[in-house]
Amino acid sequence: QARLVESGGGSVQAGGSLRLSCAASGFTFSNYNMHWVRQAPGKGREWVSRINSGGTSTSYADPVKGRFTISRDNAKNTLYLQLNSLKTEDTAMYYCAKAKAPFYAYSSDAWSYDEASWGQGTQVTVSS
């Protein structure tokens, strides 16, 4: 059964940086496209970024483009999110999620994130 454990969150001042990690187990990590999703207090879930299984293609939501960088180390079964130039509006719980299906499914499920897969999340709090 897939298990994802997020870490690396914390409290920083605006303009600061954090690096989030997501340790994966229970599935073949290198076969899955991966995502970061966040949820701010009182708001709905917001997709942040995704990376393909091989780590060669990335995509970002407009609010974080140019400030956040997603990456992965398939040898370590770990997903990362580098957060730079943080803003107060980045305050949220951050979750990593695997795609619903492996990349070789060549279907929309190979890109859609599986909400059932994410872990407890890691809190990022940015103060002004």
Could you walk me through the main structural features you see in this protein, from its secondary elements to its overall organization?
The chain has 128 residues and is mainly β. The chain has strands at residues 3-7, 10-13, 18-25, 34-39, 45-51, 58-60, 68-73, 78-83, 92-98, 122-127. The protein has a six-stranded mixed sheet, with no helix packed on it. The chain has a four-stranded antiparallel sheet with strand order 1-3-8-7, with no helix packed on it. Strand 5 and strand 6 form a beta hairpin. The chain starts with a strand and ends with a strand. The model has no long low-confidence stretch (mean pLDDT 96).
What is the succession of H and E elements?
A: EEEEEEEEEE
* Radius of gyration from CA coordinates: 14 Å
- Main β-sheet: number of strands, strand sense, barrel status? 6 strands, mixed
- Name the overall outline: globular
- If strands are numbered along the chain, what order do they take across the biggest sheet? 2-10-9-4-5-6
Strand coverage percent: over 45%
Content-based structural category: mainly beta
